Amino acid sequence: MTTLFPPQFVDVLVPVALDQAYSYRVPPGMELKPGDIVNVPLGARSTTGVVWADNVTIRPGLHNRMKEVEEKLDLPPMKPELRKFVDWLSGYTLSPRGMVLRMCLRMGDLGPEREKVGVRLVGPKPERMTTARMRVLNALADGMVRSKSDAAHEAGVSAGVINGLIDEGTLDTVVLQAEPVARPPDPEHKVPDFSEAQQKAADGLREKVANGGFSVSLIDGVTGSGKTEVYFEAVAEAVRRGKQVLILMPEIALTAQFLERFTQRFGVPPAEWHSQISPRKRARCWAAVAANEAPVVVGARSALFLPYADLGLIVIDEEHDPAYKQEDGVRYHARDMAVVRARENKIPIVLASATPSVESEVNARRGRYTHVHLPERFGGQHLPSVEAIDLRREGPPRGRFVSPRLAEAVKNTLERGDQALLFLNRRGFAPLTLCNSCGHRMACQNCDAWLVDHRFKRRLVCHHCGFSQPLPEQCPKCAAKGSFVAVGPGVERLEQEAAELFPGARILVLSSDLVESVERLRQELEDVAEGRFDIVIGTQLVAKGHHFPKLNLVGIVDADLGLANGDPRAAERSFQMLHQVVGRAGREEGRGYGFLQTHQPEHPVMKALIAQDRDAFYTAEIEVREKTGYPPFGRLASLLVSGGDKHETEGFARKLAAISPLDEQVKVLGPAEAPLALVRGRFRYRLLVKAPRNYDLSAFLRDWLAAAPKTKGTLKLEVDVDPQSFF
Ligand code: ADP
Ligand code: ZN
Fold first, then answer.
1. Are 513 and 477 in contact (CB under 8 A)?
2. How far, in Å, CA of 641 to CA of 715, rounded?
C-alpha cells in the first residue's frame, strides 16, 4: 500500500518560540493544503498549528520517524496573505515565526456552544398553586419568551420554581438563538450633513475604497473637526461593497464612546476585539471574522492578526499613539504593521490624528501618503485659546502646584457651571518620599527608581516592578520618626489641593491605577460627559478621544514633565499629548481655555501650542530629525542586554558590540547603562544601532545575532526594531 500511495508530508508552524516549521506525516485519507489549521503532537502534548507548506520531501530513511498530523480542524484555512504577513513581520522584528503565528491563533475556547433556553407561558394552570407560582404566571402573562434567569428574576422566584412549572407543562421551553457577534451595519442609517471640507475629504476616502488597491491616507485635523465622521464614510463604502473593515484604537477605554458613535451612524454596534472580552465571545468573534460574518471589527492592536475573510479597509484612529507599539514579546508597531498588512492585502488604509506622528507627517508632506486635511472644528467652534503660566514668575506657593492664575480660572469656570480638567501625568500622591532629617530617599529594592507614594492604597509603590511597602514608621537610614515628606505632585495630591481650593466642587480623579474595571471607567467617563463632576484630575488616561461637552478649561499642571527625558521623540510626544489634552476644552458649549504651567514658555513645544501653530512645530521638529538622522530620516534598533549580575551583563553587552558586523552605513552606539539601569533586580545595558532610511536593518541584525554568543543563565537579549521606548 505504501508503495501505491507514497506518504505525504507537510510543514506545520506551531505557536511556540521557534522560527522553523516542523514536518509531519499526513495520515491516509486526510488532505492538507497550506493554511489548514491542524492539531499536531509537539513533545508530549498536542498543539494547534497551521500547515505552512505541503508536498514536503523527507529523506526516505526518516519516513518512519515522522510524527503524524492528528486532526484537521473544521476552521477556514489561514489565507495566504495572512501567512505572508506572519513571515514578513517575523523577519522584520526578528521574532520567531511561531510567536507571530501565536497572535493569529488567539481564537479562545472553541468548545461546543451551550444552548441558552428560554421559557414562555403556554398552558394550563398548575394543579398546585403557590404564591411563587402565581408571581411567575403574572410576570409571564404577556406570553413573550424570556431566558430562564430573566423569568426567575422578574418574578422574584428561584430557578426551581421555573423548572417546576416547566415539568407541569405550564411553561414551554424554547431554544434561544445565540446573539450574533455583529449584525450588519446599515451604511445609510444616519449620514451627517457634511461641511464642504468634510464632504471633500469623505468623497476622497470613499473613492479610495471604491477603487480598491493599496493606498495610505492621513486624515489630519484638529480634535472636533469630524475626522471620525469622515472616515465613517469610507467604512460605509466598504460595507456597501460587502468588504470587512478593521478599525484600530489605541486603548480599550476609548472604544466605549466609540461604540456608541458607531451605533448612531450605522444603527448597530461593531464587533469588538480586545483583551477584556471573555474567551467565549473571543471564540465567536474570531470565527465570525473568519466566516465573513463580522463586517466591522473595532479592536486593539491584536485585532490586526484576525483571520479576515475579505478585508477591504483598515482605519487607525489616533495613529500617533505610542500605545500602538507592543513592548513585550513580539515588538511591533501596530500602525506600521497595519500599513504592511494593507499592502499585502492590496487595500486602502486610513490613518487619523489631530497630531500625526512625525513619520506620517513627513510621508504626507512628501506625497507618499494622501493628505486629507480638515482645517477647522465642526460648526465653527473655536479651538481653545492657550496661555502659558510662567512658573518662574507666577508659580504657586511652596508645596502647592496650582498657580494663583490657574486657580482663578478654574473658579470662574465652576461659577459658570462648566467643567475644568487639571492634567498631570503622574499617578499616586507624590513621586518622591524624602527623610527631612537625613535626606534619605525611599527607593525600590529591585529597581533604580524612587518609590511613588500612593496614599489611596496607603503604600509606596515602584512603578517599574510593582514592589510596594507601607511607609515605614522611622527612616531606615537615620531612624528619625515621622520625618518623611512628600516631594512633588501626583494626581492624588492634586485632588487634595483642589478640594481645599474649590470647596464643594465634585472632583473625580482618573488614573489607570485607580481603574477597577473597564465598565467602571466607562461609567465614570460617562458621568463626566453628563456633567456629574465639576473638576476632573487626570493622567494621560483622560488625554485621548473622550468627548466632554461641558469641559471648558484645561490646566496643564506641569507642561515640562515629558520634555526632560532623553527620548528622541520627547518633544513630539509632549506636543501630541499636550495638544490632545488642551483640545478636550470647549468642544461643544462655549469657548475653551487652556493653561500651560511651565518653566520654559519659550520652548518650541509651548510656543507652538500657544500660537496654535501646529505646522511650525512639525517643520521645526522635522528639521531636527533630518539633521540628526533620527526617524524617519534614519532607522534605529535597540539591543537591550539584561541580567542579574552587573559585571556579566555589561561584559556580554561589550562582547556583542565588539563582534558587530562592519558596515560603514551603520553606527553601533554603546553599550551604555540604560536610563533605568536596574529593573526587577536586572541590570540593563543598551546598544543603539543607527542606519540610513532605506537600509535593511533587520538583515544586518540577523547577521550580527547569528554570530553572537548564546545568552546563558539570567542573561537576556531583547531586540527592538524601530524602538519607541528608550528607558
Ligand atoms: P474628531 O474625530 O476630528 O475629533 P469627530 O468626528 O469626533 O471629530 O466630530 C466632533 C463632533 O462634531 C462629534 O460630536 C461629531 O458628531 C460632530 N460632527 C462632526 N461633523 C459633523 C457633521 N457634519 N454633522 C453633524 N455633526 C458633526
Ligand atoms: Zn521596582
1. no
2. 7
**pLDDT by residue (tens digit) across 657-674?**
999 999 999 999 999 999
Query: Would the CB of 198 count as within 6 Å of ligand 1?
Result: yes
Other CB atoms within 10 Å distance of the CB of residue 321: 26
Q: Which residue has the cell 516631594?
A: 487
Asked if 48 and 13 touch (Cβ cutoff 8 Å), the reply is no
Q: Residue 227: CB within 6 Å of ligand 1?
A: yes
| Short-list 502, 330, 540, 335, CA closest to 414 | 502
Q: Are 511 and 539 in contact (CB under 8 A)?
A: yes
Strand partners for 481? 474
3-state secondary structure at position 280 = helix
If one residue of 203, 222, 229 were mutated to test the ligand 1 pocket, choosing by the most ligand atoms within 8 A of its CB, it would be: 229
| Termini Cα distance of the chain | 63
**Ranges assigned E (strand) in 391-496:** 419-423, 432-435, 452-454, 459-461, 468-469, 484-487
Could you check whether the bond before residue 384 is cis, i.e. omega within 30 degrees of 0? no
Residue 51: which H helix or E strand, with range?
Answer: strand 45-53
Q: How many Å lie between the centroid of ligand 1 and the Cα of residue 546?
A: 12
Nearest CA residue ID for atom 9, ligand 1? 226
How many angstroms does the Cα of residue 456 sit away from the middle of ligand 2?
19
* Residue 79 in grid coordinates: 489565507
Nearest to 92 by CA among 306, 330, 328, 322: 330
* Cell numbers found for residue 65: 520517524
pLDDT tens by residue, 225-239: 899 999 999 999 999
Q: Where are the beta strands (DSSP E) in 527-622?
A: 535-538, 551-556, 593-598
* Torsion region of 466: left, alpha or beta (phi above 0 gives left; psi -120 to 50 gives alpha): left
The whole model's pTM is what? 0.87
Which helix (H) or strand (E) is 100 found in, with range?
helix 97-104
> What is the distance between the alpha carbons of residues 287 and 292, in angstroms, rounded to a whole number?
9
Q: Is the pLDDT of residue 331 over 90?
A: yes
**C-alpha cell at position 680:** 526587577
